[in-house]
C-alpha cells in the first residue's frame, strides 16, 4: 500500500505518526501482531478506504487465534482486570491500606465482645477521577489478605432503575455459593440476614461501584467480620455513618506526568517536559482524560507530544460542550474519536445504544452488522484507544462519560433513523436468543436446530443458562422495549420460552414483570389461551418471588376462569395445580387434595405427562400430611411406574425426571417414617439427601439427613446414625438453627447411651 503511493517509510511515518522502525519491522515480518491502534494510525496515514482498511485488519487478524464464540462462565461479581500502569494516589492508597490492615486485625480478634464493625471505605469524586480504578487496584494488591476473594458489583446509580440492595445481595450470595433455589424460597429480609451471616465469616473485598444513593448500600454495610466493603460514588454519601471517606480529585501535576510517562514511555515524556505539562493541563489532570489522550499518543510513536498538545488545543476550540463532565475531558475524547477509522467510530457510536452495563462481542457484531472477528477487532481497537474498558470475562463496558459522549456523537452523525434501526436489530437478536436459550429447558424443545452463522454457541443447557444470566440486563431491557413498542407476539414468545427456565433461576427478581406483561400482551391480542398460560405463570411468580399468597391465589383463579372460558384443558390443569399448592401451603388440605386430583384428571385428558407428574408428586405430600399414608405410597408407586413406562421415556426431560424422583422419594419418606417402617424410610432417604443438596434445597437436604439418622437409631445402626447427625452439623450455614439443635441433642443422647429418636415426623 505504501509503495502504491510511491511513499518512503519516512513519509508514511510522518503521515501516520508510527515510527520508521515499527513500520519497517511490520513490512519485514518481524512484527506480526502490532496493536490495532497502530494499524488504524497506518490506515489513516495512508488514507485508506473501508475496503483497504479491512484488508489491513485481516492481515493483523491472521496473526492471532480466531475469535471463540463460546460463552464465558457467568460470574456477575468477578473483578475486572486492573490497569497495568497505575500511578499516583499515594495518600489515598495509604488510607485504604490502613483499612485493609484494620480488617485483617479484626478478622483475627478472638474476643467478639470488643470487635468493632467491619471497615467501610467510600471513594467519592467527580467523573473520570479514577474511583473504580483505585478500588480495583486496592483489591488486587490486597489479595493475600483476603483469601476468600474479591467481588465487584456495578450498582448503576445513574440509571433510571439503579440496582437495589436486594439485587446486590442476590448477586453476592450467588457468588458465595448459595444455591439459586434456596435464594428463591427466601424473602428479601431472610436473604439480607443470610448476607450478613455469611459476610461475617468471610475474609474478602466487596466493591460496590457507581453508587447513586445511601439507600442502595446502607443495608449492605457489614456488621462484623473480615469483609472490607469499598463503595465508589460521585456523591459523598453523607448519610452513611461510621465510614471512612476518601476524596479523589484531579491528579497532582507530578502524578499526571507519571501517568503519561507510564503509557507513552519515559524517553518521549522526559524529552518534552513543556509539552507534558501542556497535555496534562488540557486534560484537567483527570485520569480518564489523561489515559485516553496518552493511549492515542502511544501508537503515534513518531509524533512529538507537542503535536498532541496542539491537537488537543485545536479540538477544544471547536468542540461543543456536553452536559456532563469537564470540557477538557471531552476534548481528549474528541481527539481520540476523530482519529478513529470510520468503521471503528461507527462501532463506538452504536455501542451507546446497548442498554445494559456491559456487552459481548456478539452484541457488538449485531449492532454493527459485521462478523465476530471484525467486531472483536473494532472493540479491541477502542480498548487500545482507551475509549472502552474491559469487563468481566470477555466483555466490554463504557465509562459513563464515554457512553454519554458516544451517544452525543451518534445523535449528531447518524440521526434518528439509524438509531431506531440499530435498536430494533439488537432487540430482535437479544429476544431471539432468549427464546432459543430458554427453550433448552422446555420438554418439547431442548437444543435449538443447527444454524449457520449463529453468533453464540448453545450446545447444552449450561451454555444456555450462562447466556441468559450474563445477558439478563440486556435481554430484559430489550423485552421492555418490545412491550413499549407494542410487539405483543414477541413479548408472548419470550415469556413462553422462559416458563420452564424460570424454575432454574427462581431468585431473579423480574419474573413477575415478564409474565404480567405477557398476560397483558395476550389480552391485547385476544389470545385467551396465552393469557391463561401467563396468568398461571404469574401465580407461581408471585408466590416464589414475593411470597404473596393473596396475589398468587387471585392470579391462579383468573387463569382458571379464562382457561374454562376458552376451553383450554392444559391451562385449567395448571391453574388447579397452583391452587392446590397454595391451599397446601396454609395446611388447608381437603381443597388442596381436590385441586390436585382435578389437575391430574385434566392433565391426563390433555395427555400432558410432565404436568401429571408434578401434580402426582404433590398428591403424595398432601395425602401424607392429611394422615393417609397408604394413599401417599400408592401415589408414589404410580409416579415411579410412569417414569419407567417406555411410552413416556422420550417425553420426560432428564431434569424433570430427576426432580420428580427426588421429591417423590422425599415426600413418601414421611409416610414410611410415620408408620414406623424404618427400613423403607432409610432406603428412601439415602436416595434423597445428596440429590436435594445438589439441587440447592439445603434445608430439605438437612431434614433428610436428620430423619435418616433418626430412622437408623430406630434400627439400632448407631454408628451410621452418628454420621448422618454430623452431616447435619456440617450444613451449619445452610439449615435453620432448630435443626442443628436437634442434631446436637441427638448426638449427646447417643454419647450417653440414651437415644430417644422421635416417632412422629412433619
TrEMBL record:
InterPro entries: AAA+_ATPase, Cro/C1-type_HTH, Lambda_DNA-bd_dom_sf, P-loop_NTPase, TPR-like_helical_dom_sf. Pfam families: HTH_31 (PF13560). SMART domains: AAA, HTH_XRE. It comes from Streptomyces griseicoloratus. Residues 1-53 form the HTH cro/C1-type domain. PANTHER family: HTH-TYPE TRANSCRIPTIONAL REGULATOR RV0890C-RELATED (PTHR47691:SF3), REGULATOR-RELATED (PTHR47691). This is Helix-turn-helix domain-containing protein. GO terms for molecular function: ADP binding; DNA binding. Transmembrane segments: none annotated.
Amino acid at each position: 500500500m505504501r509503495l502504491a503511493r510511491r511513499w518512503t517509510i519516512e513519509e508514511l511515518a510522518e503521515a501516520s505518526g508510527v515510527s520508521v522502525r515499527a513500520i519497517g519491522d511490520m513490512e519485514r515480518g518481524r512484527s506480526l501482531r502490532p496493536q490495532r491502534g497502530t494499524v488504524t494510525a497506518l490506515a489513516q496515514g495512508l488514507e485508506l478506504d473501508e475496503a483497504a482498511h479491512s484488508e489491513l485488519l485481516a492481515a493483523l487478524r491472521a496473526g492471532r487465534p480466531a475469535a471463540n464464540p463460546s460463552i464465558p462462565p457467568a460470574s456477575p461479581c468477578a473483578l475486572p482486570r486492573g490497569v497495568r500502569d497505575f500511578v499516583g494516589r499515594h495518600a489515598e492508597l495509604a488510607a485504604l491500606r490502613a483499612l485493609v490492615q484494620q480488617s485483617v486485625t479484626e478478622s483475627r480478634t478472638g474476643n467478639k465482645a470488643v470487635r468493632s464493625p467491619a471497615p467501610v471505605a467510600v471513594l467519592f469524586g467527580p467523573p473520570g477521577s479514577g474511583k473504580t480504578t483505585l478500588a480495583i487496584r486496592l483489591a488486587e494488591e490486597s489479595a493475600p489478605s483476603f483469601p476468600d476473594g474479591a467481588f465487584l458489583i456495578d450498582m448503576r446509580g445513574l440509571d433510571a432503575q439503579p440496582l437495589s440492595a436486594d439485587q446486590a445481595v442476590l448477586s453476592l450470595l450467588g457468588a458465595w455459593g448459595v444455591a439459586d433455589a434456596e435464594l428463591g424460597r427466601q424473602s428479601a429480609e431472610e436473604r439480607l440476614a443470610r448476607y450478613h451471616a455469611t459476610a461475617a465469616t468471610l475474609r474478602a473485598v466487596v466493591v460496590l461501584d457507581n453508587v447513586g444513593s445511601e439507600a442502595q448500600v446502607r443495608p449492605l454495610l457489614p456488621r462484623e467480620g473480615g469483609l472490607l466493603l469499598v463503595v465508589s460514588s460521585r456523591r459523598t454519601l453523607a448519610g452513611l455513618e461510621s465510614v471512612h471517606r476518601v476524596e479523589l480529585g484531579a491528579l497532582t501535576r507530578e502524578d499526571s506526568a507519571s501517568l503519561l510517562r507510564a503509557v507513552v514511555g519515559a524517553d518521549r515524556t522526559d524529552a518534552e517536559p513543556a509539552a507534558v505539562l501542556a497535555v496534562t493541563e488540557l486534560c484537567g489532570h483527570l485520569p480518564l482524560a489523561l489515559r485516553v489522550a496518552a493511549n492515542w499518543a502511544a501508537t503515534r510513536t513518531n509524533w512529538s507530544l507537542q503535536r498532541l498538545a496542539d491537537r488537543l488545543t485545536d479540538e477544544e476550540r471547536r468542540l461543543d460542550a456536553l452536559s456532563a463532565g469537564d470540557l477538557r475531558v471531552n476534548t481528549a475524547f474528541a481527539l481520540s474519536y476523530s482519529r478513529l477509522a470510520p468503521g471503528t467510530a461507527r462501532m463506538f457510536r452504536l455501542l451507546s445504544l446497548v442498554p445494559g452495563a456491559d456487552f459481548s462481542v456478539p452484541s457488538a457484531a449485531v449492532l454493527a452488522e459485521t462478523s465476530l472477528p471484525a467486531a472483536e477487532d473494532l472493540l479491541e481497537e477502542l480498548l487500545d484507544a482507551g475509549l472502552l474498558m474491559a469487563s468481566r470475562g470477555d466483555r466490554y463496558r463504557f465509562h459513563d462519560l464515554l457512553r454519554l459522549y458516544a451517544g452525543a456523537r451518534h445523535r449528531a452523525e447518524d440521526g434518528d433513523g439509524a438509531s431506531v434501526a440499530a435498536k430494533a436489530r439488537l432487540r430482535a437478536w437479544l429476544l431471539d436468543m432468549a427464546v432459543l436459550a430458554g427453550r433448552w429447558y422446555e420438554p418439547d424443545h431442548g437444543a435449538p436446530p443447527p444454524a449457520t452463522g449463529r453468533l453464540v454457541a448453545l450446545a447444552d443447557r449450561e451454555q444456555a443458562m450462562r447466556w441468559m444470566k450474563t445477558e439478563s440486563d440486556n435481554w430484559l431491557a430489550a423485552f421492555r422495549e418490545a412491550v413499549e413498542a407494542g410487539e405483543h407476539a414477541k413479548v408472548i414468545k419470550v415469556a413462553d420460552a422462559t416458563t420452564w427456565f424460570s424454575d432454574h433461576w427462581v431468585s431473579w427478581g423480574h419474573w413477575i414483570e415478564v409474565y404480567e406483561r405477557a398476560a397483558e400482551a395476550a389480552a391485547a391480542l385476544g389470545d385467551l389461551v396465552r393469557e391463561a398460560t401467563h396468568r398461571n405463570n404469574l401465580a407461581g411468580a408471585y408466590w416464589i418471588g414475593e411470597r404473596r399468597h393473596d396475589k398468587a391465589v387471585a392470579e391462579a383463579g383468573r387463569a382458571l376462569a379464562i382457561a374454562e372460558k376458552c376451553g383450554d384443558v392444559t391451562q385449567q390443569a395448571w391453574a388447579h395445580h397452583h391452587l392446590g399448592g397454595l391451599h397446601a401451603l396454609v395446611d388447608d388440605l381437603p381443597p388442596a387434595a381436590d385441586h390436585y386430583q382435578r389437575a391430574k384428571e385434566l392433565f391426563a385428558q390433555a395427555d400432558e405427562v410432565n404436568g401429571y407428574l408434578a401434580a402426582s408428586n404433590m398428591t403424595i405430600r398432601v395425602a401424607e400430611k392429611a394422615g393417609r399414608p397408604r394413599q401417599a405410597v400408592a401415589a408414589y408407586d404410580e409416579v415411579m411406574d410412569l417414569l419407567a413406562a417406555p411410552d413416556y421415556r422420550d417425553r420426560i426431560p432428564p431434569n424433570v425426571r430427576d426432580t420428580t424422583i427426588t421429591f417423590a422419594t422425599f415426600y413418601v419418606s414421611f409416610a414410611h417414617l410415620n408408620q414406623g417402617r424404618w427400613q423403607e424410610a432409610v432406603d428412601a432417604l439415602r436416595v434423597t439427601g445428596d440429590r436435594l443438596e445438589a439441587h440447592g434445597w439445603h434445608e430439605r437436604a438437612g431434614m433428610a439427613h436428620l430423619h435418616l439418622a433418626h430412622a437408623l437409631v430406630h434400627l439400632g445402626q448407631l454408628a451410621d446414625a452418628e454420621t448422618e447427625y454430623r452431616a447435619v452439623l456440617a450444613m451449619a450455614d445452610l439449615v435453620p438453627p432448630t435443626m442443628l439443635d436437634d442434631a446436637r441433642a441427638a448426638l449427646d443422647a447417643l454419647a450417653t447411651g440414651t437415644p430417644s429418636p422421635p416417632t412422629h415426623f412433619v
